Fold this protein.
Amino acid sequence: MTATGTAPAPAPGTRIRLTAPAPGWSIDADVVVVGSGVAGLTAALRCAAAGRRTVVVTKARLDDGSTRWAQGGIAAALGEGDTPEQHLADTLVAGAGLCDEEAVRTLVTEGPDAVHRLIAAGARFDTAPGSDEIALTREGGHHRRRIAHAGGDATGAEISRALVQAVRAAGLRTIENALVLDLLTDAEGRTSGVTLHVMGEGQHDGVGAVHAPAVVLATGGMGQVFSATTNPAVSTGDGVALALRAGAEVSDLEFVQFHPTVLYLGPDAEGQQPLISEAVRGEGAHLVDADGTRFMLGQHELAELAPRDIVAKAIMSRAHEQGVEHMYLDGRHFGAPMWESRFPTILAACRGHGIDPVTEPIPVAPAAHYASGGIRTDLHGRTTVPGLYACGEVACTGVHGANRLASNSLLEGLVFAERIAADITRNPVPQPPAGAATAAGATGATGATGAAGSAHRDVPLLAPETRTAVQRIMTAGAGVLRNADSLAQAAAALDRLRHAADAAAEAGAPTAGHKSPEPGVEAWEATNLLCVARVLVAAAQRREETRGCHWREDHPDRDDASWRRHFRITMEADRALTIRTTQTAGFPPAVAP
């Protein structure tokens, strides 16, 4: 059920949480950072350098987040003749009228210095032949060569290496293989830490708690909500789901960017798919159909380097016209030396699947890649829950609007992580009020996780095998092409999954073929995926236009008069969704300091 406008608020302190055992251990910190990509590790290093006791929690290994998969590079106005104003203009065009210009201006003006600080921290970018200058390339939507890259097509891996090394050198406390479950709050509703489950490896095991007055969510994306994605298996929307359960606002979840050139592995391919970086097109590869025709010519002034939503739509349209499943990316004219030096990772991935880009075109099709929306924040990364911050892909800063400009993601994580750390460290560490019960201390057999007097409703868990059902529902109904019927069918199917889980939990026994599963990582992930899927579909149903990477077949035109607005969505204690709309494209501050 989706409510519009205002809705009755739950009783103070009453929130919802995942069904989970009570924390069996706890540690204290000043800041807990959840996630170990460029955003999380940058925030952690800055906070630790300012003397804050900082703990990094990450779902897999420290170097196993989404950042390491980034191939293309990091965008910033670093080249001769380029300016932040030009970078801003390209970002606003890609964002299709929904960017917050102040946020974009912050990104592009602070970006170059942030990149230089990243280099000072140990990141090594490729340089031009015979020069110490950073080599720059172009990607879709950019009118200038402003993409810095490393290892040819292994930029994310190099940034991850440098930051992980810096974190280890600084001696930061890290908890690896840990899925964060829910936010802890005190009696006033302020953040007081997180609960988490360590997956059998490391210093801790099982469910525990990290108590801290500041929590930074840098958990990455939610690409696993679709059957085929470029995202790693850990990208199950955990941060957005946690924030929704905690009462935070999310925004723009309907704008999921489908990367136009993902290696096509067949109609039944599921899970993480190999990405063919936009930089391949930036270096001159052509998109062609089976006849070798360059179908992007005449469709956009930048042809193959048009913004990603335009290229993805063109690929899908041409494929539908010809009754096929994919198009081709032709880089045979590069020759073997260029493939081997500039794109070694992509070359190896293609050859691993029996395709040699040196001698044949690469079959490509769009796949879920990046969430332009997420947890709504202000320019300091603050969410609508005091003490809770978000940065990177999990956040919605207003930078990306309806469609992220290529290679702005790493820059956004870098710039806004630094801003979050500055905001946290400019204020004294809050002290808990005398006699206040901590979340772990207030947790008993009934599972309450707030301060004394708080109450919680446990979310019934989905069976692990339901994950595949959610992914197929979303791919069929809310993928690249959407319409009222497909979205309605998706919403109904998701509701059936939710009601079946509720019925099984209420009965305490198998109901209609469903048994309430035991708490565990796979059940928690499936439940998180269902949570973010419901919000995405609700927003996509509401937006009756085509804008950026939101493509409504039944409303094919962009409508600035009616839809140049954002949807702010919260989840109530009964898990109903409340949707509010802004009347302008601006993002006012989320919370006061």
Remarks:
- The CA atoms of residues 107 and 415 lie 6 Å apart.
- The first helix runs from residue 38 to 49.
- Confidence is low (pLDDT under 50) at residues 1-13, 434-453, 585-593.
